[in-house]
Design a protein that fits this description.
Helix 8 (150-160) packs parallel to helix 9 (178-187) and helix 16 (367-382) runs antiparallel to helix 17. The model is unreliable at 1-14 (pLDDT under 50). Strand 5, helix 9 (178-187) and strand 6 form a beta-alpha-beta unit. It contains 17 helices and 13 strands. It has two domains: 52-271, Type I PLP-dependent aspartate aminotransferase-like (Major domain) (Aspartate Aminotransferase, domain 2); 275-405, Aspartate Aminotransferase, domain 1 (Alpha-Beta Complex). It is an alpha/beta fold. The protein is globular and about 60 Å long. Strands 2-8-7-6-5-3-4 form a seven-stranded mixed beta sheet, sandwiched between helices. The chain has a four-stranded antiparallel beta sheet with strand order 9-10-13-12. The chain has a two-stranded parallel sheet with strand order 1-11.
């Protein structure tokens, strides 16, 4: 049964921890209480399914390195995406960088999405190690559509002749134009990588088509919509690219996964073919659309809705993203500050909030709860007048009530 807010935090923790390290026990207890009372709209929220939690607990007691366990994870992932080659990584950043090392000779060019348009730091920022080892050319998107134009993409491809093209990123509320990017990749003899950070679960659940029909390689996180532990995988149906990745990365990848992580991954991937997972993914899609409509009804400017995330434009409210995120945290809502496509402000002073519905859907939220969540967001962002503490306290009670009705899996 899920743990309620009235239960003592970390009740199942070994007594020895309370005796040996009271400071650590207190820190973990406070974090647990905060998690139970908070509604997480961040994309990094890790809401494991019950099966994944049970598998992880069984493995935490200590297991030898189990090749059979890794084989099970890989075979289940391969069945989900129809890809004969799967490589596992402890983090998405490691998977991103591993791709660059495997495909690109040092000094070659990668074409990726601009950070302001939703691209990832690990493949779009020149200050990152990827930008020091490789040449980075970047494409943007049109503010009205959230998509790059064919004219700009073609110009950049012909001017830079990239060896690697990355479609998608970490804050993309719209699906990338894979068919166009594949045509351009073939034209300049480049490898096309689809980054499924924002919609891997929607693909796995059959709600969106698998991008391996157009992309040579796919990279994605294993948590978020998958309800698995943090990690990442690379999938491909191209035998030559698979061999190239294996030869280049013999000292990286799945050998670094802890048995507990591999066990939870096996359980999470094992749930994907089930009807329950399909209903959950359908709920993610419906909740994203419901939250967008509800936020618009609150008079807020929001983009997205065809993946699990939305991007809220705070400029009409005269708010920066960091102050807005602080206001939401005070009532029990977590959201990520992000830059906006057409915002002239520096990247360090973003004006957007990224909202993901995956964690809330995993807790059992539906369209009705999304409407309440949108109301909480709208009222909180406008609750900035002096003497608004009573209103803030009332909003905090509503958020806490939702958290109690839909508790985290214990």
């Amino acid at each position: 049964m899920p743990q309620s807010l009235s239960e003592p935090p970390l009740a199942c923790a070994p007594v020895g921890l309370r005796v040996v390290d009271r400071r650590l026990f207190g820190l973990l207890s406070r974090a647990r209480r905060h998690g139970l009372a908070t509604l997480d709209l961040t994309t990094a929220a890790c809401t494991l399914s019950q099966a994944a939690r049970d598998a992880r607990r069984l493995a935490l007691g200590g297991l030898p390195r189990m090749p059979a366990l890794l084989d099970l994870v890989v075979s289940r992932a391969a069945g989900i995406f129809g890809a004969p080659h799967i490589r596992l990584y402890p983090s998405l950043a490691q998977a991103h960088f591993a791709l660059l090392l495997a495909i690109l000779p040092r000094g070659q060019t990668v074409l990726s999405l601009k950070l302001r348009a939703g691209g990832s730091v690990t493949h779009s920022l020149g200050a990152h190690s990827a930008g020091r080892w490789f040449n980075v050319a970047q494409y943007g998107v049109e503010p009205a559509t959230g998509q790059p134009t064919e004219t700009e993409l073609r110009r950049l491809c012909l001017a830079h002749r990239p060896r690697l093209i990355i479609a998608g990123g970490v804050t993309c509320p719209h699906r990338p134009r894979l068919q166009l990017l594949r045509e351009l990749a073939d034209e300049v003899d480049a490898v096309l990588v689809a980054d499924l950070t924002d919609h891997a679960g929607l693909v796995a659940g059959g709600h969106l088509p698998c991008p391996l029909a157009e992309a040579h390689l796919v990279v994605m996180p294993t948590n978020r919509e998958f309800r698995g532990p943090p990690g990442a995988l690379i999938a491909t149906a191209d035998i030559d690219l698979a061999r190239q990745i294996d030869l280049t990365l013999t000292d990286q990848g799945d050998a670094g996964l802890a048995p507990a992580t591999a066990s939870a991954l096996a359980a999470a991937f094992g749930e994907v073919p089930s009807e329950a997972f399909r209903r959950y993914i359908q709920g993610v899609s419906e909740n994203a659309a419901s939250l967008r409509r509800a936020l618009q009804a609150e008079g807020l400017l929001v983009a997205g809705g065809d993946t699990s995330i939305l991007v809220l434009d705070l400029r009409p409210l005269g708010l920066g993203a960091e102050p807005a995120a602080t206001l939401l945290r005070r009532i029990g809502l977590n959201a990520d500050p992000v830059p906006l496509v057409d915002d002239p402000a520096p990247l360090a002073l973003p004006s957007g909030l990224r909202l993901s519905v995956a964690a809330l859907t995993a807790r059992g939220f539906g369209p009705e709860e999304m409407a309440v969540t949108a109301s909480l967001i709208g009222r909180t962002l406008r609750c900035r007048q002096p003497g608004a503490r009573e209103a803030e306290a009332a909003l905090r009670r509503v958020a806490a009530g939702l958290a109690r009705r839909f508790p985290l899996v214990s």
